[in-house]
Amino acid sequence: MRPLLVILLALAAVAPPARSQATGAGAFSLAATDATPRGAALAGAVSAGGRPDAGAWLYNPALLSPDLSGRFTAQVSNLPSSVAGGGFGYARSFAGLGEAAVVVRFLGWGEMDRTSTDGAPAGTFTARELALTVTAARRLRPNLRAGASLHALRSTIDAYGASAASLDAGLAWSAVERGLSAGVSVHHAGLVLSSLGATRDELPFDVRLGVAKRLRHMPLLLSATAYGFFSDAPLPDGGPAGDAFSHLLLGAEFQFSDAFQVRLGYDHRRHEALKIKSRLDFAGVGVGIGMRVRGIRVDWSRSSWSSLGSVHRFALSVGP
Questions:
Q1: CA-to-CA separations, 301 to 43, 44, 261, 289, 304, in angstroms, rounded
Q2: What is the pLDDT of residue 230?
Q3: Which of 27, 90, 140, 274 could bridge to 283 as Cys pair (CB 3.0-4.6 Å)?
Q4: DSSP label of 119
Q5: How far apart are CA 249 and CA 239, in angstroms?
Q6: How confident is the model at residue 25, as a pLDDT?
Q7: pTM given for the model
Q8: Does some domain include residue 314?
Q9: Number of domains composing the chain
């Protein structure tokens, strides 16, 4: 049971918080984890887009674009303590209507030993999470898109289960000629249908504001996303400047070509929550690469969780 509690508590410390509490050692932690390797490499600073990315609509539903039509994506990831997850999704455009996509994601905590109240072995148990997301988006104006996602969430630990339904909605604006884009999105506004225990589980409700700018004379996309303003959870001790910085996710993507990108991101809140003060610590830092060969795209990311280890994500997508 100890590895499960360690990872759940780590997620509680770094996840986008709910209105009254962070997603803690309970349900729906999958809804608050990074959804794609590109998003993880950029520390979640992808709400404004900046380039077509399969699965980007999980960060802002309006980022589901015609460029992604017909693309199928499969993803695997590993968290510390043998926790593993993954998922798959498909997007399609419909003439005159817009775009639609479906994504299934899962997270497995592995098999753990069960003990009785006196500490004696009592078999094993498992814990799992599952999320089904259906997204629709369309163009409102030449440079403005809107989208919405419906999520069905399910968490189980042993014989206990929790279920919820939630809604995301977003807008995405872009000025291609200036290399500038912006996005605003609301995440996980919904209803908890059942909880794991007597205490009601919380959805990770959040509002995000993002901006991205591609430099004129360098193949570099800089991005920032503001988040977590509706939380009562305490912020890292850093004064007013530190408080403001704890609401920002920062990313940089070197877009050498459509066939190759290098990514770097930083999440200050995650860094402060997980760092070991006695040494140089890369907690909260994400790195990754993206490659495309003809119709096949490969994305990889690595996110540091300090002494807990690293999270690796790998995605393969095929399509036009």
A1: 10, 12, 12, 7, 10
A2: 74
A3: 274
A4: S
A5: 18
A6: 44
A7: 0.86
A8: yes
A9: 1
